Each structure stands twice: as structure tokens, then as C-alpha cells.
Amino acid sequence: MGCTFEDGLCGYIQGLSPDEDDFDWIRTKGETSSDSTGPRFDHTTGSGYYMYIEADGPEDGKKAILKSHPQRATSGEGVCLTWYYHMYGPDVDKFNVYLQQDDQNMPIFKRQGTQGNQWMYEQWTVSSTTSWAVVFEAYKGLGNAGDIAIDDVIVTDGACSLQRTCDFEVGFCSWTQDSMDDFDWTIGNNGSMLEGTGPPSDHTMGTDLGMFAYVNTAKPPRAYGEVAQLYSPVYPAAVSECLTFWFHLYGGAIGELEVHIYDTVSKASTSIWKETNPCK
């Protein structure tokens, strides 16, 4: 199912309108026909082909689906599914990727709004005991400057390389809860927050549809000093690396947010950053 779209669709099929989608993806090269949106070239060679949705034509809010044929169940460590996507323009809407198993779509990736005029990389390890397919779903936004494109969908044997970024759009990625702490982190959006606390939107999408990780201290009520800890995957030793994150602390009874580096060999935990009740 790997495809660079240089020689066609590689067996990928459009959604079966009107049951699944409203319009089709288009295979093209060079710039798209809408102004101020879409890529100027493909990702593979810079002069080849890619797939995209043309925002000048379909009705606002309509969607297009492109999906692979069913693939055999994976074995061992599974397979690594990678793809490049391009979302650029003031009217870009939603782009979702699903893993289809037993006629059920499990979301593995989603973005909304412009992501900059560049090709972006994403990956997902597929470990499935049943046949599966990948589904690319793109929506037409409120305007004509909203083209969305994909290119270089590749599948390789074995799990993907260690995931170093997480935006919490489809869960905790490879992050894990501490089984020995007092309560857990939660995935939510603006609708998950109580009045007077929490962010109005996530940072990735900037809308109330985007997801983030947060701690709920109200349901059930948490006692002063209780802790919720979330662990990243274990990363190999490095001379120097940069850790970046976005945080939001807002409310009348905020406690403390702290970041630690945990050495899995020495078992030592070192605090590297802390913010305490900035509302006081």
C-alpha cells in the first residue's frame, strides 16, 4: 500500500459517494489551482505527483475520502505507516487519518487549520490481529483557500522509530500514567473544563475541537498535595537535546506543575522546571 503517487493511485480508492464522502481527491503536480493555498510541488522529487482536495468547487463542510485496500494482519512488531501532509491557507479545515478494522474507523491522526506552507511528516505503528486499511479524510473549509494534500505514504516492516512528539490529539501517544501516584491525567478539550479554569482551546489546532492532557482536581475532589504523574517513553542517552512543551495554568486554586528528568539507570529524578500557583 506504499505509494508516492508518481505512477497513479497504487490501488487507493475514493470514497463511494454519497454513502462515504461528497467529492474526490485529485492527483496533480505543481501548484494547485486555488490561490494562496496548497503546495507548490510534491514531496517525493519536487517535480512529481501528489494527492489533494481542491477547495474551489465543493460546498463548505463537505468531505473527501481516500483509502487503501485491506491489508493482512500484522505480525511481530507490526509495521510502520508514514505519510507527509500539507495544510496551508486561511480556509483550511480538518484532516483526519483513520485505521479501519472490522468496518470500524479508529482515529490515529487529526489536524485542523493551516499548518504552514510546508510538507509535514507523521507516523503510526500498526499492530493489528485482523485485516486493516488506512483512510485519509479531508474537509472543505469556509472559503476557497483551503487545499489539503498528502504524499509519500510508505509502509515498512517493524515498529516506527521512537515517537518524540505528542500533541494528544488521538490519545497519550507512548506516554504512560504512573501507577503509584494519586490520580491520573486525562485527555480532554475545552468542553471538558469547569467554568473558571482550563484553556479556551488546545495549542495544536487552536479550537475547542483540539485535545490536550490535563488534570481534573474537582471530580472527584482532590486533596491538597495529591500528585498525578505522566511519563514519557524512555529515550536513549544524548549529549544534548531540547525539550519543548506548552502549558496552561489558570484558576483560583492552581497547585504546582513540575517537570523532572528521570534516569532509568541510576533511578535518580532531577527537577528541571517548576511553576507554582501563578494566580497568587
UniProtKB/TrEMBL annotation:
It comes from the Eukaryota. Residues 1-162, 164-273 form the MAM domain. Coiled coil: none annotated. One of its GO terms (cellular component) is membrane. This is MAM domain-containing protein. It comes from Strongylocentrotus purpuratus. The lineage of its organism: Eukaryota, Metazoa, Echinodermata, Eleutherozoa, Echinozoa.
